[in-house]
Amino acid sequence: MKRKYLYSILFFIMVGFGFNAQAGVIVKVKPPAVKVEVRPKAKFKNGVWVNGRWHWNGRKHVWVKGYWVRPRAGHVWVAGHWAKRPGGYVWVKGHWKKKRVVVVRKR
């Protein structure tokens, strides 16, 4: 009975926090320096370049090449990055962020 109760609590915690296996992984091995990539020509107008990154596959870091994406109206791309945390490093995913409009009035 206690085990079933514990599994239920664990399930609701994972659902409540939007559980993502990669997001919560703390990697003890520091990722290598970012590689410099030559960007190929975009296949569409106003493409946004998503930088390549080091991916942790459970044993080692492997390089994932950068790629072009179509722009999202009213948004800017925020690049993903490795962040130092207690006990190691975690991957913070890239995402689209809504542009802020700043109005400047003349005096």
Structure, explained:
This protein has a two-stranded antiparallel sheet with strand order 1-4. It has a two-stranded antiparallel ribbon with strand order 2-3. Strands 5-8 form a two-stranded antiparallel sheet. About 12% of the residues have low confidence. It is flat, with a radius of gyration of 19 Å. It starts with a helix and ends in a 9-residue tail after the last strand. The protein has one domain. The protein has 107 residues and is of the alpha+beta class.
Quick structural gist:
The chain has 107 residues and is an alpha+beta fold. It contains one helix and eight strands.
Topology:
Blueprint: H1 2-16, E1 48-50, E2 53-56, E3 61-64, E4 67-69, E5 75-78, E6 81-85, E7 88-92, E8 95-98
Antiparallel strand pairs: 1-4, 2-3, 5-8, 6-7
Low-confidence stretches are: 10-22
Strand order of the largest sheet: 1-4
Mean pLDDT: 84
Beta content: 25-35%
Name the shape in a single word.
Answer: flat
Helices and strands, in order, run as HEEEEEEEE
The gyration radius over C-alpha positions equals: 19 Å
Helix content: 10-25%
Q: Characterize the main sheet.
A: 2 strands, antiparallel
Number of helices: 1
Highlighted features:
107 residues; flat
